[in-house]
Amino acid sequence: MGDRNDRVPMMTGRTRRSTIGPTPAGGNSKQANGNKQSSAGEKMPSHPSHSNGKVKKEKQVHEPVRTPQERSKICERLSCHVLQESLLSSASGYSNYRGILNWCVVMLVLSNARLFLENLLKYGILVDPIQVVSLFLKDPYSWPAPCLVIVSNVFIMAALYTERRLSVGTISETTGTFLYLANLTTLLCFPSATVLTLTSMTPAGGVFALGVYTILFMKLYSYKDVNMWCREIRHTKARNLTRSHSCPSVAQSNGSAVHAHVSYPGNLTYRDIYYFVFAPTLCYELNFPRSPRIRKSFLLRRLFEMLFFIQLLIGLVQQWIVPTIQNSMKPFQFHVPSMAGYGLFQNDGAHVKTGSELMQFGDREFYRDWWNSETVTYFWSNWNIPVHKWCLRHFYKPIMRRGANKWVAQTAVFLVSAFFHEYLVSVPLKMFRLWAFMGMMSQIPLAWFVGRFLRGNHGNAAVWISLIIGQPVAVLMYVHDYYVIHYMSQS
User: Fold this and answer.
1) Alpha carbon of 365 to those of 230, 267, 356: distances in Å?
2) 416, exposed or middle or buried, with CB in 10 Å at 0-12, 13-18, 19+?
3) Cβ neighbours of residue 1 under 8 Å, at least 6 residues apart?
4) Cα separation of 194 and 198, whole Å?
5) Active-site residue identified among 245, 261, 335, 421
6) Reduced to 3 states, what is the DSSP secondary structure of residue 373?
7) How far is CA 127 from its chain centroid?
8) Helix, strand or coil for residue 432?
9) How many Cα atoms are found within 13 Å in the side-chain-facing hemisphere of 238?
10) Is there a contact between 467 and 476 (Cβ–Cβ < 8 Å)?
């Protein structure tokens, strides 16, 4: 015992290899000091120690070498939390809410499907496309709206011949300005007087004719300005028009004729002015961006969309709006004009894209992300890009160059827009209520309030509220008054 105790300190400084588990029967196991056990039946204690229990030794076991993948798996078992924000928190930076948007669309479809089912059960099927055609063909021997559109060629020719005389110097700039003023004033007054005078002119035909004349007014005004700028450049010894929106010639890939780059006064032709009249833009240029070819498959899809949305709009008007107006003495139902407006927006986009493809018009940006508008001014700047470009180019910037401030120029733009909105509604209906005019002018204080006090999602919500409530209310006010005047008085 004494010799064994004397060897204990020597054992503590060495690494002893031990075997886990019992040794085989009849076998011998080696100790750390190299001696064998006295007999095969004795077992090695799991924790060797002195008999007095004062000194203890721990077994040192070699751990197996682990790969980084195994270590990461072990760490995953031990830890399940990291420092992170909730997805619906603004601090998370998460922005993919496509599933929530799809859910909103599904709920919108289901809610309107319920309303549509109730409408069918109450009124039956009211959709009749032939009825709409009869509105434009009420008198097959006298079509006032198409006749008005044909007469508009007189004003187009007057603008072209005025520009030709100005280009060769046979008339002065003052005389040319007077002729343009007379032409553009007559362009607005003549169709409105015709609509108000003719009893055979239906409201639908009146809106169509006045819409064509309003677009033509804006186009010819732009035609006047651009050609005047060309003369100013020519007078300063610059032979070519090098404006920011001009586009060089584009060679077609199929080997057809190349779109030639023209310069003033080579643009004063019938082909040029009628291309501009039918092009889906209000701003004139000598060289429009042109696409290399007409994509037939794209054109067929756009034609199908145009026909589909026209029928959808007709169905919404006949099935939902007409019964609602007939019951208009009850509280207004705002969802009906909103759905019709959505269909009108989609139809407008389809027919403009169709015209662009047929005419190989290259600039296809007719609207931007107006649905993300956080201010009222942003909405009106991105809802209708052709109108916005015209207002900016031919009205807003000229006023600013005359020394006016920003708010005065914006107020003037809204004033002109309010006039045309009222012009396109009151004249065809042959009644003046100024709902459209006041609705547009109310956008000025609304734009100031939203821009000053609301930001981000709150501003976007305010814009949507104004679209869902404001415009449908104005439309219903006109239709309600028209129905009361023409139908309630008769009954």
Assistant:
1) 26, 24, 11
2) middle
3) none
4) 6
5) 421
6) coil
7) 30
8) coil
9) 10
10) no
Angle at alpha carbon of residue 329, lines to 328 and 331, rounded to 5°: 80
62 among known catalytic residues: no
Handedness of CA 27, 32, 37, 42 (dihedral sign): negative
Residue 412 belongs to what H/E stretch?
helix 406-429
Distance CA 273, CA 157 (A): 9
Collapsing DSSP states into helix, strand and coil, what is residue 290? strand
CA distance 157 to 292: 30
* pTM metric for this prediction: 0.71
**Chain Cα centroid distance, residue 220:** 28
Token pair belonging to 391? 């207002």
Length in residues, the chain: 491
* Cβ atoms < 10 Å from Cβ of 52: 7
Which residues does residue 30 pair with via DSSP β-bridges, in sequence order?
Answer: 36
**323 CB-contact burial (10 Å; exposed 0-12 / middle 13-18 / buried 19+):** middle
CB 234 within 8 A of CB 116: no
Could you list the pLDDT tens digit for every one of the 491 residues in the chain?
444 444 444 444 444 444 444 444 444 444 444 444 444 444 444 444 444 544 444 455 556 677 888 777 777 777 777 787 887 777 777 778 788 888 888 888 888 788 788 888 888 887 777 776 666 565 555 578 888 999 999 999 999 999 999 999 899 999 999 999 999 999 999 999 999 998 888 888 899 999 999 999 999 999 999 999 999 888 875 444 444 344 333 344 343 444 578 888 899 999 999 999 999 999 999 998 888 888 888 888 888 888 888 888 888 887 777 777 666 554 444 444 444 454 455 445 666 777 777 888 888 888 888 988 999 989 998 989 999 999 999 999 999 999 888 889 989 999 999 999 999 999 999 888 888 899 889 999 999 999 888 888 889 999 999 888 887 788 878 877 887 787 665 55
Q: Tokens 């909730």 appear where?
A: 86
The 10 Å Cβ neighbour count of residue 435 is 19
Instruction: Tell me which amino acid residue 453 is.
Output: F
What one-letter code names the amino acid at 273?
I
Residue given tokens 């004795």 in the structure block? 42
DSSP assignment letter at 62:
P
How far is residue 395's CA from residue 325's CA, in Å, rounded to a whole number? Answer: 38
HEC secondary structure over 196-219 = HHCCCCCHHHHHHHHHHHHHHHHH
Q: Residue written as tokens 């732009």?
A: 222
Burial class (CB in 10 A: 0-12, 13-18, 19+), 259: buried
Query: Tokens representing 71?
Result: 């270590």
Instruction: Indicate if the alpha-carbon torsion angle 289, 292, 297, 300 is positive or negative.
Output: positive
User: At residue 327, what are phi and psi to the nearest 5 degrees?
Assistant: -105, 30
